[in-house]
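Dear colleagues,

As part of the handover before I leave the project, I'm documenting each prediction I ran so the next person doesn't have to rerun anything. This entry is a single chain, and its sequence is reproduced below.
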Amino acid sequence: MQRRIRNTSGSTTALPLRVKNDEYPRKTRTARRRRFSKRAVIIAIIISSILTLVGFIVVWESVVSFFGSSTSSLTNSLQTGASHNNDGGTSRHLDRSNFYEQRPLDRFSELQYALEHSKLVLLYFAASWCPMSTPISDALDEAFGKGDVLLTRNGQKKTLSIVYVSSDKTLEEYTEYTRKRHWLPIPFESPEKNQLKRHFATCAHREIEELQFDRKHEIPTGIVIESRTQGIITTNGADDVEEMGAGALEHWLKMQGWASQMANSIAQGNDGSSEKE
């Protein structure tokens, strides 16, 4: 299509209705490229910021979980520091001698063997009837069932122990599910089985009404405990094993080493500040 315009001489001249692509000014194309590049940079910065924030949240939750499970120790230490302040005029601080004195899991006798003979304890909340527990149990068998890192009842200290906290319906289900595995199951009839569920707010949905607590974790759940401090390393142990296999243990040990250093730094730092005073 064409359009006509009248010039000064009175004649008409035909002009193209549309301008071809190759006739666009170069400046327009360059400006569009620049705008596109700026948008791409902005999008990349936003994505990078989101990933950084997610990573920070994951690390922060691990720190909070580690120290949150040791509330009793921290509270007692603070109280000791406060009493020093009242009696001797010193500032309030954490008493290193009491930092690990009262640990939150000492009241569970069924856990003491695992805590005393392994660096890490995996509390595995699951059930034989639960379809979501099956792949996690299989992953545990594949990762640790044939290795020498897993604690058994022979008394030799190991790196890891798996303590099974059952939600099985019957003793027969419980026995069949654990008999060929190198786990340290809480006895089916032991009252500590439900006490542990309450302590960690973890159980099957069908048990909520019976146990009467606000559930935080469903089954299957794997909670990794650092034996010396009894602090929580992670509550994502089941997912870690499913995703990393045997590599999950190295992952937990790195987290345990980092968290322990932080705990020691807090105790030593407060001791140092009190000595200067």
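Residues 47 and 265 are 34 Å apart (CA to CA). Strands lie at 2-6, 12-16, 118-126, 158-166, 221-226, 232-234.

All the best with the project,
I.
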